[in-house]
Amino acid sequence: MHLQLAQEDAQDKLAGLESDQLFVTSPKDMISQGVQIEASQCKIARMNKELGQHSTDLQRAQVLEKSNHLCHRIKMWFIQQEAHMPVVCSLRIHEGLGDGPLVPTYS
Question: Could you state, in order of their start, the residue ranges of all structural domains in the chain?
Answer without folding.
Answer: 28-100
